[in-house]
Amino acid sequence: MTSAASNPKKEIRVNAFALHSPVHHSPGMWRHPRDRSLEYNTLDYWVDLAKTLERSLIDSLFMADSIGVNDVHGGNLDTALRHGAQVPKQDPLMSLSAMAYATRNLGLCVTSNANHEPPYVFARRMSTLDHLTRGRIGWNIVTGFAKSSVKVLGKDQVASRDERYDIADEYMDVVYKLWESSWENGASVRDTATGVFADPSKVHRVDHEGKYFRVQGIHMTEPSPQRTPVLFQAGSSARGQRFAGHHAEGIYLSGPSKKVLTPVVAGTRAEAVKAGRDARDIQFFTMATIITGRTTREARDKYEDYRRYVTPEAALAMFSGWTGIDFSTYDPDEPIRYMQLDAGTSSALEGFTRLDPERIWTVRELALHNAIGGRGPVFIGAPNEVADALEDWVDETDIDGFNLSYAVTPEAYEDFADLIVPELQARGRYKTRYAPGTLREKLGGRSSLLNERHPGAAFRRYPSRPLRNTP
Amino acid sequence: MTSAASNPKKEIRVNAFALHSPVHHSPGMWRHPRDRSLEYNTLDYWVDLAKTLERSLIDSLFMADSIGVNDVHGGNLDTALRHGAQVPKQDPLMSLSAMAYATRNLGLCVTSNANHEPPYVFARRMSTLDHLTRGRIGWNIVTGFAKSSVKVLGKDQVASRDERYDIADEYMDVVYKLWESSWENGASVRDTATGVFADPSKVHRVDHEGKYFRVQGIHMTEPSPQRTPVLFQAGSSARGQRFAGHHAEGIYLSGPSKKVLTPVVAGTRAEAVKAGRDARDIQFFTMATIITGRTTREARDKYEDYRRYVTPEAALAMFSGWTGIDFSTYDPDEPIRYMQLDAGTSSALEGFTRLDPERIWTVRELALHNAIGGRGPVFIGAPNEVADALEDWVDETDIDGFNLSYAVTPEAYEDFADLIVPELQARGRYKTRYAPGTLREKLGGRSSLLNERHPGAAFRRYPSRPLRNTP
Prior knowledge:
- Chain A is of the alpha/beta class.
- The first copy, chain A, is built from 15 helices and 15 strands.
- Chain A has helices at residues 3-6, 43-55, 78-83, 96-102, 119-132, 147-152, 161-181, 238-247, 258-274, 296-307, 312-323, 363-370, 383-397, 411-426, 439-442; strands at residues 13-18, 60-63, 107-113, 137-142, 188-191, 196-198, 206-209, 214-217, 230-233, 250-253, 283-292, 335-336, 361-362, 378-381, 401-405.
- The first copy, chain A, is globular and about 70 Å long.
């Protein structure tokens, strides 16, 4: 009995996927007359987008990030810069509160690299956001280093993948201690009558002395609605799957076919079970792009219109960056029969680098194929056709939903709201309103907190006390 | 000829001073029925505050911060926690974009410690904010470490003050290189016709190899409206004044009397001149609290009402934290004749720890005195009386304005808008509308960029090109 068969009509969840850059996965599209990508550095763009996503009942906006750059193609940054291909790239944390203020239900999931700042500072930052958004924050845990990001951080070399995950495991221990164990429930009293703000006997110092980190002090914020933000991960190496099996509540994936995804989903669910969790404690979202219209013809015309703006050279530069292979040195018609991943390639991008093993690609095909929608499928068609595809992918791969990228923004999300949402709702596969509560509860959690099987829950000092949050 | 005499009617500038905590400088006041301090962890509070400040034509909101805690009093955190005395304390960066979206002119100046994150990551974060706010960002440069913050960052000891400033000087070099030299003007092309986003020949790699930092890579964002955010500083030691004389465009001060402030202002202006800048290239803002009403009587009644809510014990805990002296071990009536500053006390707080040398204080008096308004003056009176005091302070000390703290928030800023602003405007000492342009221009700068005398300007690679920003 497959999981899909046991749950044939599960609700399809959808995140929106974005990057603070003129290009995310569809290079060249910033030139399209209806595209607003060039406004990526304005709050108007992000607030308008957040409102559109909330209108679509989309679960969350997932903000990708890295401080690496696509400098593999031609051995320099020129192609990436010329096309704005994920460079420049702004800090996604900085726009969140404006989007949070303009919405009430949209989750805000942000990529942040555990190597960029001390765990104490980072834990406080996430707790602040979880307070300000009233519990709508998710964290996509990134542990990797692109080579270019190592240079800007002044480090000598990329740690091995295994050591990176060891560091990340200890980093997680530190932030769990701060989020889960420092302030007991009930520590925050806020009593104007007695003048007691907090009960010092219920606020505890974290004493962490590990191999990589040392922290001694209380967590700097009161418990936020979720304490630990909803945890996402994107790694898909064996070690990455193990890390995700332990820590992740959501996994962002990418793959060109259902066949590629299915074993990744099953493998990571198995890692969760090995870690003492339930296979269903993790939700999987795969990247996809939808191009739709009222009819098949309208959708295809839209796709053909979009294609006039693609820049395959930029797509190839991005693919070179993801894989560590300089495709500028290949003949465009050369078939790519075997691809060896560069070990130093950021693990954050591993999920994007799986080629469909069922066909042979030429360099030129690869570039064109990736010029819209990157490494994920592109569903082109009328709403019923797209909905069929979405259902098939969920039911056959056991994913929980999609991480929705775009060709033209915000048109892609407006089309999703106007055309796809009603179709999925009519099929009983999409929510008709947001669930109440925090992001964790909206995603199906029974409480605003990590569930008791999650390893972060083991850091709670006071399991006998009711784990309800202060208001 | 004194500077004040040469400029007898200079406009009085006003910032508002805030901390993401239930207490800033008036412990206990969160219990006042009209006070909204307990909402410090909500966006509603911060957005409403920002709108009120903009209604007052206040130049900027200055957000204090540190990850240190007041754990000197009694040798533990209990008193600070019980009263919420600057603990908990959230990350002030996280609320900025919501405030920026809700306003058009208010500057947003944020304290960020150069020790908390790599300069590359920090420079990108500030550039992002400068883009998103359309050039309204200021940075209060903090170089210090409270002992408690050293422990949470896993460091063994506090660097000496001199070394901290050496590190900070090199940190500034790195961020200037990223902000000023990496992207030439005109590098960001954004041409939808040709498909060129950026001109790679005008984007340059920073190669910094110093004693404390090593960075190799391009700045990750396009030039923001101000490139370098408006730079503020608060140190007042001799080394701190030298650092400020070099880097600061604004100085936040605090002192209980005009006599205490005057030499600090003159000394730092002299350091600016020594550094090849103009004495007027730095503006000085001293902390002050205003309690006003339509009449003297109304103001005094308000003050007496507020005093019913003060918690002197918390004020003493905060003062213990600032000075490094455990006042819980003193007899309340003991006179304090001489106070030796603890060398490890955070330099960020140096400005707050100057006692008035003209009188002898008892511990009890110190606590009561500090329970409203902290280390700055408290002006209590009808609008004309308060305006007289503000004018006197500016004219006699050569400061440029105030850093307005509060007893009850947002009442203090509403009163300022309704009562003090019209009085100062009638005297020709306060603006009647915001100046156009970026924060730097609103504060009197002739351009959105660092002026040519500022050491950051020396890092521009292309002085012969017009230093105008891309749109």
